[in-house]
Amino acid sequence: HVQLVESGGGSVQAGGSMRLSCAASEFSGSENCMAWFRLPPGKKREGVAADCADAASTIYADSVKGRFTISRDNAKNTVYLQMNSLKSDDTGLYFCVTGNGAYWGQGTQVTVS
User: Fold this and answer.
1) How far apart are CA 46 and CA 19, in angstroms?
2) pLDDT value at position 72?
3) CA 15, 69, 102: angle at the middle one, nearest 5?
4) Across 4-33, average pLDDT
5) How far is CA 6 from CA 42, 57, 95, 100, 109, in A?
6) At residue 68, does pLDDT exceed 70?
7) Of 20, 28, 51, 61, which alpha carbon lies 20 to 30 A from 74's?
8) What pLDDT shows up at residue 71?
9) How far is Cα 81 from Cα 72, in angstroms, rounded to an integer?
């Protein structure tokens, strides 16, 4: 059972930056793919970014391309989401996900005003 703990959320003005962190109890097997999802207020959950170490690939939602960067520190079992040029549409509860969706963190709130 993989445990995920997100941190780094908060409030920021539009145009600002924020970095989210997700500490995983382990990176192994299917947990080599790490992803960030978000739940905007009143909207459906959506994928934001994903990083699959085995495939050496990253993918981003069109809405965040060029503004968000997913990265990982395997030595610390931690994945990051650097968010720049934030917009009000980026407001939401951000979740770290792994294990092909089997494991979710508790979420961290990002509010852009």
Assistant:
1) 18
2) 87
3) 120
4) 88
5) 22, 22, 7, 18, 10
6) yes
7) 61
8) 92
9) 9
Residue type at position 26: E
| Residue 12 identity | V
Phi/psi-derived region of residue 66, left when phi > 0, alpha when psi is between -120 and 50, beta in every other case: left
39 with 93: CB under 8 angstroms?
A: yes
Name the strands in the sheet holding 4-7, side by side, starting at the edge strand that comes first in the sequence.
Answer: 4-7, 18-24, 78-83, 68-73
- Please say whether the beta carbons of 57 and 91 come within 8 A: no
Q: What is the mean pLDDT of residues 84-90?
A: 98
First to last CA, the chain: 37
Compute the distance between CA of residue 4 and CA of residue 105 in angstroms, rounded to an integer: 5
CA–CA gap between residue 47 and residue 60 (Å, rounded): 8
Burial of 71 (0-12, 13-18, 19+ CB in 10 A): middle
